[in-house]
Design goal:
Blueprint lengths: L2 E4 L4 E3 H27 L1 H11 L13 H14 L1
Antiparallel strand pairs: 1-2
Helix pairs in contact: 1-3, 2-3
């Protein structure tokens, strides 16, 4: 293992960073797939955007994209 950063609290290894990059890439792909599936169904898209723009999920800015809504709601809420 090759250490890339040492600090007083921990050591970060290059292999760990590469594994994290792979995990992030997979999450982005999953998010893209879910976004595409939801955008294909106009009725579902409308319901999700309407729900995320209620006071229960208050955000400072109106959510206008399905991808933003997915991030705010999270996968567990979408499963419901």
């Amino acid at each position: 293992m090759t250490a890339i950063l040492k600090s007083s609290e921990s050591i970060f290894y290059l292999e760990d960073v590469e594994a994290d990059d792979e995990a992030l890439r997979r999450l982005r792909n999953l998010n893209d797939k879910i976004t595409n599936m939801i955008e294909f169904d106009i009725s579902l898209s409308y319901k999700i955007l309407k729900m995320v723009n209620t006071f229960a999920y208050y955000t400072r800015v109106k959510v206008t994209s399905i991808q933003q809504a997915i991030v705010i709601l999270g996968l567990n809420e979408l499963k419901k």
